[in-house]
Design a protein that fits this description.
- The complex is a heterodimer of chains A (339) and B (505).
- Chain A is mostly helical.
- Chain A has one domain: ABC transporter involved in vitamin B12 uptake, BtuC, CATH 1.10.3470.
- Chain A has 14 helices and 4 strands.
- Chain A has a two-stranded antiparallel ribbon with strand order 1-4. Chain A has a two-stranded antiparallel sheet with strand order 2-3.
- Chain A starts with 13 loop residues before the first helix and ends with a helix.
- The N terminus of chain A is likely disordered.
- By secondary structure, chain B is an alpha/beta fold.
- Chain B folds into 3 domains: 245 residues, P-loop containing nucleotide triphosphate hydrolases (Rossmann fold, 3-Layer(aba) Sandwich), CATH 3.40.50.300; 161 residues, P-loop containing nucleotide triphosphate hydrolases (Rossmann fold, 3-Layer(aba) Sandwich), CATH 3.40.50.300; 79 residues, no CATH class.
- Chain B contains 19 helices and 22 strands.
- Chain B has a 6-stranded mixed sheet, with helices on both faces. Chain B has a 6-stranded mixed sheet with strand order 18-19-20-15-21-22, with helices on both faces. A 4-stranded antiparallel sheet of chain B has the order 2-1-4-5, covered by helices on one side.
- In chain B, helix 14 crosses helix 15 and helix 14 runs parallel beside helix 16.
- Chain B is globular.
- Classes of the chains: A mainly alpha (339), B alpha/beta (505).
- Bound molecules: adenosine-5'-triphosphate (ATP) and magnesium ion.
- The site of adenosine-5'-triphosphate has 20 residues of chain B, from strand 2, helix 1 and helix 16.
- Chain B: It holds the Pfam family ABC_tran.
Chain lengths: 339, 505
Amino acid sequence: MTVVTTPPTPQRNRSLLGGRRVYRPNTKHIPVLATLALLIVMYSIGVYNYDSFGDTQVFLNIFVDNAFLLVVAVGMTFVILTGGIDLSVGAVIALTTTVAATLLTAGWPAGVVLPLVLLIGTVLGLGMGAVIHFFKVEPFIATLAGMFLARGLALLINRNSIPITNDFWTQMAQKRFRFDDGVFISLNVVIAAVVVLIAALVLAWTRFGRNVYAIGGNADSALLMGLPVGRTRIAVYTLSGFCASLGGVLYSFYTSSGYSLHGQGLELDAIAAVVIGGVLLTGGSGYVLGTVLGVLVLGLIQTIITFQGDLNSWWTRIVVGILLFAFIVLQRLVTRKAK
Amino acid sequence: MAEQLKMTGIKKVFPGVVALDDVDFRLLPGEIHALMGENGAGKSTLIKVLTGVYDIDGGDIELAGQKVRFTGPLQAQQAGISTVYQEVNLCPNLSVAENIFIGREPRKFGRIQWSEMRKRAQVSLARLDLDIDVSAQLDSYSLAIQQMVAIARATDVGTTKVLILDEPTSSLDASEVEQLFTIMRRLRDEGVAILFVSHFLDQVYEIADRMTVLRNGRLIGEYRTAELPQMQLVSKMIGKELEALEQIEEHAREATVTERGTPIVDARELGRTGAIAPFDLTIHAGEVVGLAGLLGSGRTELARLLFGADRPDHGALLIDGKPHTVKAPREAMAEGIAFSSENRRTEGIIGELTVRENMILAMQAARGWTRPIPRRKQDELVDRYVKALQIRPADPERLVRDLSGGNQQKVLLARWLITEPRLLIIDEPTRGIDVGAKAEIQRLVAQLADGGMAVLFVSAELEEVLRLSHKIEVLRDRRLVEELENGDDVDADRIMQTIAGGATT
Ligand SMILES: Nc1ncnc2c1ncn2[C@@H]1O[C@H](COP(=O)(O)OP(=O)(O)OP(=O)(O)O)[C@@H](O)[C@H]1O
Ligand SMILES: [Mg+2]
């Protein structure tokens, strides 16, 4: 008796193998393209409706005003790509600016303060990453705790807004890169651009970057494939912590102050930018370029509302809310269609 | 000869189950060693304990004479152990090439060399006789190809000393299995120690030099393949003689459908571009229809159309003689059509729920969520199928995630059986299921058909299709090429010929 038999080998049929692949368009780019289209539409509406909206400087100011958000959102992109979330970034900005302002007022040299505040955010990120990995705590919970911790520390240090008068800080804040036709960008924009560039390269060309995607795709599989899941996860939160504190430094350049209530709700802006930029909230799919576009969308909404003049600034939130819905639904549709 | 790998006194306890109890295992260099046992015997657990996925509760592991204890798959991999775990464990969102190389991508100054990587991936798949677009995303390919990619990943490492393959062949067709065996033989001749798990006894006898049998987490013994006849192996695995298996042998062929009436499902010129060419198919109550064909011949696609999982773009579907557009699985379910998917990992089993919850899921959905099934009724039903399908451990309150692969498959099958559908579509129901349970499932199917249920049976195992079906639909290149009434003149060779395209009657 034969208990189990496999069919005898048939003639090898190559066309069969070729035909086995199910055709599927590259759905990965669709969200990014959608954001780009949205951006162009919004920009055109602006140019059409408002005088001087089309000035190059108006466009560049979006970058000037949102450079810190861009840096924070880049860190957030890494976290969300792994399928996680980092709620602490807004509070880390507050802590960074408060510590920087306090120490600078106390007469510490900028050369010490700057690395120190960057270190604070990074270490906090490392701590949250470690808690998430070693104690298997949900990222949402761990970073929520991180958020309270950072905000609380900032409030403990000083409840009031502290002006920054340090020479180096003022210099950095006032530094402008001018182009031929008189338009300019601030130092913040240059720093943000460098961060974006490095992040894009890291994600596309390094093992660390690819591991980030792998974990977002399927963390259990990534572990069985022998990828350093724990190390990568911790690194991602550390990175986000670093980006948040760097964002804080840029913010203190931008506002020339340190304040424990800076950056309230900024984590949500960062998450919104990342999602509108087409990064899948469940992880594993998306690009830094998308995040840049997402930040631009947020900035453009603000600009339009400013130009309109008679609209309450809460409209920004409302529009962002609607867009978020739209993009999450779009992602659903795209991923479902792909199935 | 000195062992490449030696495990002694291995013990592993999960809450409520002793998965491994004092198991010894050794693997010699240059041998292919089969690890045999029923579903839930502890094969996968032994592998995961070895590669550090699970902590070990007792015992020692020696690799080439050195005592080792891995903290994770990464460490095991670095020590020269390459593993293909049961079920495809790859990243669906990455490209095929990346899935083969991630973690050891070719780099220059820390920068991944993509084109080099794609080239190497192509070569590595060519060795498995597979020629596909390696830059496409993994989940755009069928399960079989994903399995081949996983195999390519494990066999591509030059430094491998131990290669572990946990049911690598369950979703492959015969020719793909041959390719795999060719590679395994070559690696063996190069001195690699290979551990192979499969429920296909023919495959084991073809490839393995020696085997180790586990039963209920205990070591039964270690044998040379040549010295252990198949029947003896099976009785060692299941712990008793197996007359049970033989009973169903002739069953289906004799039973004929006496009374025909209106077919439950009548597909006329039904088709979907790119998935399956238009086909005609009728299924009557009490009829078992088998779908035969190679993987990728359109078997699953055909089944999905009938169930409304995909929408047809051609032809018509009549249910009970009335035209019907099943647009969604829910509508098919309302008509009493059930579909048990081949892909249990992504489409079926919900690991975080218990066995009981998983089983009643489809039935509850059919009744609507406002009418909960009384707990007593649930327990009764679940108990019946846990027994009928020999699900082990026989504990309905256990999380499905903690069951062995084969037992998960049984739970999925039970989910649909419980709904007592009029037409049950089962895609590869016996994949990864041990011989004893396989016979049970086949018997259950035959029994249900006798009771008036229609069954559409999709399986890569021709013998199984032949044994159960009244009528066999043969598919080739996404086209239904022939319908055969199952009779004495129909045998595996006859079907194979049709599948291969040289049908002459
Ligand atoms: N993570 C876990 N938690 C609890 N129990 C588990 C876990 N993994 C496996 N088990 C139990 O350990 C036993 C052995 O399972 P294992 O997966 O090793 O079986 P197997 O021999 O590989 O079976 P199959 O042929 O079905 O794959 C089973 O009873 C299973 O329910
Ligand atoms: Mg197993």
